[in-house]
Design a protein that fits this description.
Elements (H helix, E strand, L loop, with lengths): L4 H21 L4 H4 E5 L4 E4 L25 E4 L1 E10 H5 L7 H28 L15 E4 L8 E4 L1 E2 L7 E5 L7 E14 L5 H6 L1 E14 L5 E4 L6 H12 L19 E5 L4 H9 L2 E5 L5 E5 L9 E4 L5
Parallel strand pairs: 1-9, 7-11, 12-15
Antiparallel strand pairs: 2-3, 4-10, 5-6, 8-11, 8-12, 9-10, 13-14
């Protein structure tokens, strides 16, 4: 192909179509469990995290409720993904071999937020000191509930690490404020070096096509997530996790109300190693019932946890 401005523009416009095709194909789940926050500066502070309120009968003047003050900050990071296309490949009309790579760039851009969010969830149990909640404690771990200035705090935990298996997670995403935050400062966007006067073309005969973004992941309300490495094949462990997350209270001592939405807003999040077990738990009609002689039989229609949550399987938890 003749190297001209018109031909180069046509070729890279075609690459844009291929990029979008890859973007649309890629599976992505981070939006289901994360609050999407549009940042307007280098970092964003969330002073409202952890604040809980409740209604009271209005007698006399309004009462300004005592709220804990927290300052949780997420600093944006910059990410890029770029490929080079040699001039000779364009001249020899072999640039089509780059289409799968360009399509992969689109795929990469779509799943990158998943890498950040689910990678954060994994790190929260493998290196808990690196993932702190708004109260300064490990996101998955012990948290003080109650107003510190009133001296009536209790300890609650959203972590059960007594088992020896892979971790699985309950996530309540029914509220506007969710347990995880995806902070976006600059959208994923394509950049090109596609003119003969570009530095890389002059020095290395290399045109470039890349995508970049400014974003980061963070944690929101710990009360809306629970981690366990207990045996998921035992429904009693799933039930215990649900009971724990439903038992959390606000600083004012009222029920927090976690895990009270519809199954579409409640998620069981697992690594691939637990996918079969999780599918049996959530999708099978059969539950284990003990007979008169002590034998256990699988009886249709007796799985009380069927469709109780939506399943998410993420390889980034492995």
């Amino acid at each position: 192909m003749e190297i001209s401005a018109a031909n180069l523009n046509a070729m890279f416009t075609g690459f844009d179509v291929v990029f979008q095709r890859g973007f649309e194909k890629a599976p992505s789940y981070y939006e289901l469990i994360s609050s999407i926050i549009r940042a307007t500066s280098r970092q964003t502070t969330y002073p409202w995290l952890g604040r809980t309120t409740k209604f009271r009968e209005w007698l006399g003047d309004r009462v300004i409720q005592a709220l804990e003050t927290h300052a949780y900050t997420v600093i944006n990071r910059t990410f890029e993904d770029t490929v080079g296309i040699f001039r000779e490949d364009i001249e020899d009309d072999t640039y089509g071999v780059y289409e799968p790579v360009i399509e992969q760039l689109g795929w990469d851009a779509k799943i990158h937020p998943d890498e950040l969010i689910f990678g954060l969830i994994k790190n929260a149990v493998t290196t808990p000191a690196n993932v702190l909640a708004y109260d300064g404690a490990a996101f998955f771990g012990n948290h003080n509930i109650g107003l510190a200035n009133q001296g009536a705090q209790i300890v609650a935990s959203n972590l059960n690490s007594a088992g020896g298996g892979a971790y699985w997670f309950l996530v309540d995403a029914a509220r506007p404020i969710r347990p995880f935050i995806f902070q976006l400062r600059r959208d994923y966007a394509v950049s090109r070096m596609n003119t003969m006067t570009d530095e890389a073309v002059f020095n290395r005969r290399e045109f470039r096509y890349g995508v970049d973004a400014r974003c980061n992941s963070g944690v929101g309300l710990w009360q809306l997530a629970y981690a366990s490495n207990q045996d998921l094949s035992n429904p009693a462990n799933y039930a215990a996790a649900i009971a724990a997350i439903r038992g959390f209270k606000t600083d004012a001592g009222a029920p927090f109300g976690a895990w009270s939405g519809t199954p579409k807003s409640k998620f069981l999040v697992v690594p691939p190693s637990l996918e079969e077990t999780a599918r049996q738990l959530l999708h099978s009609e059969f539950g284990a019932i003990a007979g008169a002689a002590g034998a256990v039989a699988a009886v249709p229609g007796t799985n009380i946890w069927q469709n109780s949550a939506t399943l998410i399987v993420s390889e980034y938890l492995s």
